[in-house]
């Protein structure tokens, strides 16, 4: 019996995403969600989340690549990667943005995030990870940080999975271990967002599941944002996670769904 946590990213990005996540929390499919606190929708969505958040992990989804407003500090992903690995990122600017996103979470939720991850996994990039861990220690952070060091792969997605894992996961793991910050052991959920059979992907992940597995997902009830490159995949994910088949698959592969905080 493997203990697994499904985590939905992008809470508050738009109402359709938030609605899907709220429903899936209520059905017991999700036990974690990470929040985009720069979103205009965040204060309203957070008030909907708070009453049902006692038995799940609610985290901060650090963002440096999605523009919500002109005041948001963002880069295109290629530029951010180039600046991070060439050590050209302004650490003070990164820290300021982390503080702003953190404070926006605490102000509405009334507590620290239960965990930290990053939109497009930017939290594991050079400079960002160093500034982040230093900030977390200053805040006496007691939660956990998402790690991609030990990915569980599905056929046809081995290269992408390993590539994302190698973009700083091992170094982030080492830094967190040195600072006694907890991390998930295993990670899944990586694919190209074009698969027409999301159920099969999950079956492949669940079949390989081990304790402390975190599975990332991105559900939404509708495809409203035409600029969102994964809008269709979001709806497919929602339909599967909201189905009887999902819970049947968990039983079939002897999966216990839990918040990650209880597994570490």
Automatic annotation (TrEMBL):
Cofactors that this protein relies on: Mg(2+)
GO annotation (BP), single: carbohydrate metabolic process
InterPro entries: Glyco_hydro/deAcase_b/a-brl (IPR011330), YdjC-like (IPR006879)
Residue runs in coiled coils: none
Superkingdom of origin organism: Bacteria
Keyword entries, A-Z: Carbohydrate metabolism, Hydrolase, Magnesium, Metal-binding
GO molecular function: deacetylase activity; hydrolase activity; metal ion binding
Protein name (record): ChbG/HpnK family deacetylase
